[in-house]
TrEMBL record:
SUPFAM superfamilies: Glutathione synthetase ATP-binding domain-like. GO terms for molecular function: ATP binding; catalytic activity. This is ATP-grasp domain-containing protein. It comes from Bathymodiolus thermophilus thioautotrophic gill symbiont. InterPro entries: ATP_grasp_subdomain_1 (IPR013815).
Length: 267
C-alpha cells in the first residue's frame, strides 16, 4: 500500500511539475526547528479547549490528579513509545530511557475511537479535497487500549460512506477550528456518532508528518476502491505541497524525523 502511495505521489509530482521532495515539507509552518520535530506540546495549543485533554511534561514530582494516564514521547508516530500508567506506584516506578522528552496525557473518558484523515483543498482553504472517517475497533475488553497498527486486537473500519453530505460538512466545520494543516490525521475519542457530529469529543492525537490514511487498512475495502482513493488523494497532496511558503522550508527534515523516531522509543 505504501509503495502505491509513493508511486502515485511521484507520478503526480512529475505531471504537475512540483518537486517530490516537497512531500517532507507539507506542514512546515508547524515544525519546531529548535527541537527538530512536530511537538505534541506545541500542537496542544492549537486544539480548542473543549476538545483538549490535559497534558504536561512528565515529572515524577507532579502526580496526575487521577489514573490512568498515558505517557507519550513529545514526538512520535503510530503510537510509538506510548505507555499507559494505571496507578501511582507505576507512575513513580517507571523508567524511561529516551532522548526525547515525554508528556503525560489525561485519558479520554469516551468509549469510541476514530481516525479522521484529510487533505485540504488548496484552491479553497475552507474545503477539504479528501476526507475519510475510520473507526478503530479494539476487540479486547480493555477500557483504555492503546490502538495502533501493531495491535492485533485492533481492526479499522472505514465508515466515510455512511455519513451524508450534510454530516460530512458538519465534521469539516469542526476541523476548521484547527489551523489550516495541508494534511492531517486526527485521532479522537467520542461516545457516539451523534456526539461526533455535535462536536462532543476529545482529540488524543494530531499527526502532521506524512500521516498514513488509516482507512486503507480496512480489509473490507476493495482493491479497486483503494487504488482509486490513492490515485485521487496523492493528486491533491502534491497540489498541497506546491502551496508551501518557501520561508518555512526546513533542511534535512526527513533525516531528522528518522533520528527522532528511534530516539522516541521506550527501552
Amino acid at each position: 500500500m505504501t509503495v502505491k502511495l509513493i508511486f502515485y505521489y511521484i507520478l503526480w509530482s512529475i505531471r504537475l511539475g512540483i518537486p517530490p521532495w516537497y512531500y517532507f515539507q507539507i506542514n512546515a509552518e508547524w515544525y519546531n526547528k529548535e527541537k527538530g520535530f512536530y511537538s505534541k506540546i506545541d500542537m496542544d495549543k492549537h486544539i480548542p479547549l473543549q476538545w483538549r485533554l490535559q497534558q504536561c511534561y512528565f515529572d515524577k514530582n507532579h502526580l496526575p490528579a487521577e489514573f490512568p494516564v498515558f505517557l507519550k514521547p513529545e514526538w512520535g508516530q503510530n503510537s510509538n513509545g506510548i505507555v499507559r500508567i494505571d496507578t501511582k506506584a507505576a507512575f513513580l516506578n517507571i523508567k524511561i530511557k529516551s532522548k526525547i522528552s515525554y508528556i503525560v496525557q489525561q485519558a479520554a473518558s469516551e468509549t469510541q475511537e476514530y481516525e479522521i484523515f484529510y487533505i485540504r483543498d488548496v484552491d479553497n482553504l475552507q474545503q477539504l479535497a479528501v476526507l475519510t472517517i475510520t473507526q478503530s475497533i479494539n476487540q479486547s475488553d480493555e477500557r483504555y487500549p492503546i490502538n495502533n497498527i501493531y495491535n492485533s486486537n485492533v481492526m479499522y473500519q472505514d465508515c466515510s460512506d455512511t455519513f451524508s453530505q450534510n454530516e460530512l460538512k458538519k465534521i469539516t466545520s469542526h476541523l476548521q477550528a484547527l489551523p489550516n494543516f495541508r494534511i492531517a490525521r486526527v485521532g479522537l475519542r467520542v461516545n457516539s456518532r451523534a456526539d461526533l457530529l455535535a462536536g462532543l469529543f476529545h482529540i488524543i492525537e494530531v499527526n502532521l508528518f506524512a500521516p498514513f490514511p488509516i482507512n486503507l487498512l480496512d480489509n473490507k475495502l476493495s482493491k479497486k476502491a483503494k487504488h482509486r482513493f490513492i490515485k485521487n488523494s496523492m493528486h491533491h497532496l502534491v497540489k498541497a505541497s506546491g502551496s508551501i511558503p518557501k520561508q518555512h522550508f526546513n533542511r534535512f527534515v526527513f533525516f531528522k524525523k528518522i533520528i527522532k523516531h528511534y530516539q522516541s522509543k521506550v527501552k
